[in-house]
Design goal:
- By secondary structure, the protein is mainly beta.
- The protein is built from 1 helix and 13 strands; from the N terminus they run H-E-E-E-E-E-E-E-E-E-E-E-E-E.
- Strands 1, 2, 3, 4, 5, 6, 7, 9, 10, 12 and 13 form an 11-stranded antiparallel sheet that branches. Strands 8-11 form a two-stranded antiparallel sheet.
- The longest helix is centred in the first third of the chain and has 14 residues.
């Protein structure tokens, strides 16, 4: 699924050949939505796919440079799939604040990097293979915040912006306890840093 999404975005990016140029000093707003493929740096998880939405505000400081900040819903976590009742998903949902420096190589094409703090709004664990174990709040030493480094490339065409990014977690979010009361869920604990591949489309307009 990730490969197909990357291919679709690559075709769209390479087919665009013109874009609007925002003047120096312009402030723009961009609401956006897209898909997130999240996992953790622990080697045991498959991707959790989710819908992400957000809004960015960007200030053009030079023809080749801008800064931006925003607010987004980030569905993080991951899946553990071992067959049958041992399958479960971690749902770590955050309100994130992406702050990036944006470098415009050519008109409309930007390379971005920055910092993204996030604050956890949901921390649940859900069984995928056992209908009697649906969802529970996770126990253990799980942090209520996250910090990642977003690295992205975007292209704007007639105010429509395609953005592909990798959010690289740089702090350990803590560790969870196994799901108590079920021998099948004895492996349902985690630790490590979040990361996500995010593909979005947005509409950017000037204030």
């Amino acid at each position: 699924m990730i490969r197909k999404t990357i291919l679709a975005f690559s075709i769209l990016l390479t087919s665009l050949y013109a874009s609007a140029q925002h003047e120096v000093g312009t402030i723009t707003v961009k609401p956006y939505a897209g898909l997130s493929f999240a996992s953790m740096f622990n080697g045991d998880l498959d991707f959790r796919r989710g819908l992400t939405v957000g809004v960015d505000v960007e200030k053009r400081l030079a023809s080749w440079f801008s800064v931006s900040g925003g607010l987004a819903y980030a569905p993080l976590g991951g899946k553990y799939q071992n067959g049958g009742e041992n399958d479960f998903i971690w749902k770590h949902d955050y309100l994130s604040i992406p702050i990036t420096a944006n470098f415009y190589a050519v008109k409309g094409l930007a390379f971005k990097a920055g910092l993204q703090p996030g604050f956890c709004i949901r921390n649940h664990q859900e069984s995928l293979g056992n209908s009697t174990l649906i969802m529970k709040t996770m126990d253990g030493d799980i942090k209520s915040y996250d910090l990642s480094v977003p690295v992205a490339i975007s292209y704007e065409f007639r105010n429509v912006v395609l953005d592909v990014r990798w959010n690289i977690g740089i702090i350990d979010i803590g560790s969870s306890d196994p799901w108590k009361g079920s021998a099948n869920m004895s492996n349902s604990h985690l630790s490590g840093a979040n990361f996500a591949y995010v593909f979005t489309i947005g509409y950017q307009f000037e204030l």
